[in-house]
Amino acid sequence: MTVEPSAYLMVGAVLFTIGAVGLLVRRNALVMFMCVELMLNAVNLTFVTFARHFDDIGGQVIVLFVLVVAAAEVVVGLGIILAIMRRRPGANADDITLLKG
Amino acid sequence: MLDAVWLIPALPLAGFLLLTFAGKRLGEPWAGWIGTAMVGGSFLVTLVVFAGLMAEDEHHRTFVQTLFEWVPAGSLSVDVGFLVDPLSITMALFVTGISALIHLYSIGYMAGDDGYARFFVYLNAFVFSMTMLVLGDNFVLTFLGWEGVGVCSYLLISFWFEKDANAVAGKKAFITNRVGDWGFMLAMFLLFTSVGSLQYTEVFAHLEEFGLAETTAMGIALLLFVGAVGKSAQFPLYLWLPDAMAGPTPVSALIHAATMVTSGVYLMARVNPILGFAPDALDIVAWVGAFTALFAATIAVAQNDIKKVLAYSTISQLGYMFLAIGTGAYVAAVFHMVTHAFFKALLFLGSGSVIHAMAHEQDMGRMGNLRKYLPVTSVTFIVGWLAIAGVPPFAGFWSKDEILIHAWSSSPLLWVVGTVTAVLTAYYMSRQVFLVFFGPERWRESQTVAHDGHGLTPDHEPRESPATMTVPLVALAGLSFVGGLLNLPFKGAFHLERFLEPVFEGRLAHLDVGTSLQWGLPFVVLGLAVCGAAVAWWIFVMGRVGRSTVEPELLEHGWYYDEAIASLVDGPGRAGATLLAEQVDARGVDGAVNGVGELVRRAGTALRVSTSGYVRHYALGIAGGAVLLLGYFISRTGF
Amino acid sequence: MFGDSTTVDVVTFILAAAATLAGGFGVVMARNPVHSALSLVGTLFGIAVLFIAQEAHFLAAVQVIVYAGAIVVLFLFVIMLLGVDREEDLAPESLPGQRIAAAVLAALGLLAVVGYQVVDSLSITGASAVSGSASADDNISGIAESLFSRYVFAFEVTSVLLVIAVVGAVVLARRHRDVGGAR
């Protein structure tokens, strides 16, 4: 009995949900970022599963790009967090409310 | 020669423009001479066009000249064009002719006034509007002229606007006219929806081919009559005309006697094909006219102001014209319109001459024996008096009696009303003549010293007016004398009737009165009129009966109609206006508009809750949206 | 290599999946951010193993090197630099209704996806292979062929993106020193 692709997809789905919930619930900026990484990884897993299912290398190439962009995103995001944290040490996501209308 | 018709309104328009920009600089008396020249030129052109029309064969006397397309709006196309036919050229002739004479008169009358140039600007504008009214080839152009004369009337009535009363009179005239105009507009709308065109020739051709339902015709006719009632001062919209005497006398003569007020009669004559389909409407017109004639005559017997007598007399005579229209005697109406223009303008100008000579005094109670001092004025005035009283061979006799004969033919009761009115007319006009030109020189008596700054002192010596004023008087007197020749009731002499017949084809009422009655009735009327004059002689020259007995307050105040209308407007009218202003406008309309703004503001405030500033809320929003999209896609795959 | 032996596949899958999900829970529920980072590493490794199970060897390697090796390290650097390694109090929730809403949405989303999978697995459009076969013997050359021919433009753009990210990071994280005059 081989592992069905749907099993991988379900793992990906659950991992994505975990990441989403974590993003909504946690306040620490860095932890929220890590939850984003979880979601990205779940997506990567899904892509690879489909690459294998449809026998298309394009799925894996996309994952490569996702990886690169995720890296760039982390770099810039952490830079922003650094800049914010320097001004207000110990701030979390709920303290930055300048967009309040 | 017919092609020159566009010059008839163009010349006064040019005069108006020229005097607007250069009038002040030209000053007295050049502004006056230019204005007069323009209108005089217009009259000459009218003569030329008339000659051109006469050169045409009797049955082809309809000429349309289109200048340009004015309103291209979907299925409605209105041109600026002129219709020359016997009716319009008749109107144009006496309008331009009398206007020219009155312009000449005004040069002398308005001399020394601050607004001399402005006066001629307005007068020329008036002549332009009036010529457009009578020469326009469609209802819209006529309406343009209609409104134009209304505006000019307003401007001229309140010419000496520094005095509040004059401005108020001007407003009253304009607003009352507006009520009539509303009727005119509704009639145009109705006409357009039922016929599809507003051009006279097209409409009448359509009516000839397809006819018109009686209810529609009645609606249009009555609505147009509402307009005519407003413009021609019939009951119940007559109350502006007596007040309009606040304007300078040439204005009263031109606008409120000879021309503007006759535009209602012209309109009804013009739409005679429509009236032909609505006989009941014609009855209403006749009775309103007859009633107004009698009503106004009763008021005229008790007026003290020399011009007010003539004002009510005008209303009464206009009533005669509508009576004629209502009985189908269109030619009689037009005939009377022309003769009335002659003698009423004469009477007004004469009274202007009297006022001018009496240091602007207008109360007849302070005049008397003026024939000694104002020979030309009194002779011409007496000619006018004889004409209006209906004494042969003056013009009024022929025209008034033609109307009365047709009235008898339609309904003897109408004839009775008309005759009583004629008697009253003779009476009050005689009264006026005797008070002003005969009897003692009342202003010399110390009890009647000037009390309101008229400058009339007991030792005032009246002097005859200058030539610019007396020449028109003489001219009009001549016309009042020979005017009857236009349409004598003898075989072969019905010139006007033959001329106008093509316009009224088949709709002219035919007399079914025996020849003996045809000759007898006029002389009965004449006899009664002479009795009326004799009564006036007995009262005012012989002094047998006191004036207060024959001039009851009820009549002097016009049956208190003015007061009634005033209280109606002040009471329910004001309440209605307040309701509209406060409830409908402030609460309804403003409420709706402001309400929209308020709604938006509240919606914004409510929605603002979603912009909390918390990143996690925004993330929640995204998550929610994503779940919804997910659900949508899954539903689309349809499992 | 383990072609016929399916039991190994299944066991591998279960273990890797467990590690992945456990790591996920750890990220979300750990109070100390450092613990979160370490759980993340666990997840990443699990994912890498799942990649290998699906014959995406190159990606697995890149995953470990880049993600676990660089990105998580970067996270830890920043955590230590900023001193946010104190434990966070997870109990109170400052935004009312947030947790309930999150739970509901998560349940709905998961239900939708998983439920759909159970009912009608993999019935999607059925597109055919676009860019070359995935089951080539040489995974790397397969990726390389696709990357440098069909997707070369995207490749170039991503490299530009990286440069921009670097510049951005330098600018953002710069400490502003006063020029002349001590403070």
Strand runs of chain A, count: 0
Determine the CATH topology of chain A.
Helix Hairpins
> How helical, in percent, are the residues of chain B?
over 70%
**What is the level-2 CATH architecture name of chain A?**
Orthogonal Bundle
Radius of gyration of chain B: 30 Å
Taken as a percent bin, the fraction of beta residues of chain A is under 5%
Helix-strand category of chain B: mainly alpha
Instruction: Estimate the global geometry of chain A from the Cα principal axes.
Output: elongated
Mean pLDDT across every amino acid position of chain B: 85
Low-confidence stretches of chain A: none
CATH top level label of chain A: Mainly Alpha
Biggest sheet character of chain A: none
Order of helices and strands of chain A: HHH
* Protein structure class of chain A: mainly alpha
Described by the principal axes of the CA atoms, the overall outline of chain B is: globular
How would you classify the quaternary structure? heterotrimer
Q: Figure out the total of helices of chain A.
A: 3
Largest sheet entry of chain B:
2 strands, antiparallel
Overall residue-averaged pLDDT value of chain A: 88
In short:
The complex is a heterotrimer of chains A (101), B (639) and C (183). With 101 residues, chain A is an all-alpha fold.
Describe the protein in words:
The complex is a heterotrimer of chains A (101), B (639) and C (183). Chain A is mainly α. Chain A has three helices and no strands. Chain A has one domain: Orthogonal Bundle (Helix Hairpins), CATH 1.10.287.3510. Helix content of chain A is 75%, strand content 0%. In chain A, helix 2 (29-53) packs antiparallel against helix 3 (58-87). The radius of gyration of chain A is 17 Å and the shape is elongated. The mean pLDDT of chain A is 88. Among the domains of chain B are: 557-608; 615-639. Chain B is globular and about 110 Å long. By secondary structure, chain C is mainly alpha-helical. Helices cover 69% and strands 0% of the residues of chain C. Chain C has six helices and no strands. Chains in contact: A-B, A-C, B-C. At the A-C interface, helix 1, helix 2 and helix 3 of A face helix 1, helix 2, helix 3, helix 4 and helix 5 of C.
